Structures are given as structure tokens and as C-alpha cells.
Amino acid sequence: MITTGDIVNKLSRHGYRLTPQRLMILDAVDGADDHISTDEIYMQVCDQYPHLNISTVYRTLELLKELGLVTETDLGDGRVRYHSIKKGHHHHLVCHKCGQTIDMDESVLSPLKAALSRDYDFDAELSHLAIFGICKNCR
What we know:
Blueprint: H1 4-13, H2 20-31, E1 36-37, H3 38-48, H4 54-66, E2 70-74, E3 80-84, E4 90-95, E5 101-104, H5 110-120, E6 128-133
Parallel strand pairs: 4-6
Antiparallel strand pairs: 1-3, 2-3, 4-5
Helix pairs in contact: 2-3, 2-4, 3-4
């Protein structure tokens, strides 16, 4: 489990500080029950810190993604969503017709990761993925 101390250490090793804005953005992602969009994070943090600029949220999320503290996923609704790495890796099956999202265990993609490595000498990052198709209710 990643702690706030781990986050502070990771930021400082890369030359960054844990500013109040970064902490509030991290808290918004960590506290979300599900994946959260940039706009949702911005609205939530603005309740506590009304002078926050949306560009700060975008830059902070990009930094947190680069440092491996959040994952970014497009679930097909036109908005990128974020998920805390603290909540573990998982993947999604997204229905094109009804929009239902089904969580899929990471182990399902292990054979694909191994095949990509073996057959293509390619190390795939399969930490958070959405696969689109049609669910059983819409077939």
C-alpha cells in the first residue's frame, strides 16, 4: 500500500514538492469511489481551494501519471478518467450499446502480455485498460 510518505518521497526524488494543490488533487482521486474525470476533480478541489486553475489540475494529473501514482483510462465517453494506483490494477469491458462497464481481473491479460513479450519482444504496459465491445444484455 502506497502511503502519503511514499508519495512525498517519490515527488522529492524527482525534484517536486507535495504542494497543497497536489495533495488536494491526490485526495480527490484517492477518495473517488470510481474513476474520476479532470472536471470532477477540479470541481471538488475548488470547493476547498477556489483559486485553483484547471491547468494546475491537468499538469498535476500528468505529473502523477508520469510518476506512476495514478492511471489514466478512456472509457469511451469522451473524457479521460483517473484512478489511484493505491486501488490496484484492473481492466474494463465497455459495452458500445448501453455503456455498461464491467471490471476484469488483471490475470486475464497475463497470456497476452507474455505473448507480446515473446513474439514481438515488446514489454506492454497493461496496468489499466478498456476493451470495447457488446455485452451479453445487448447481443
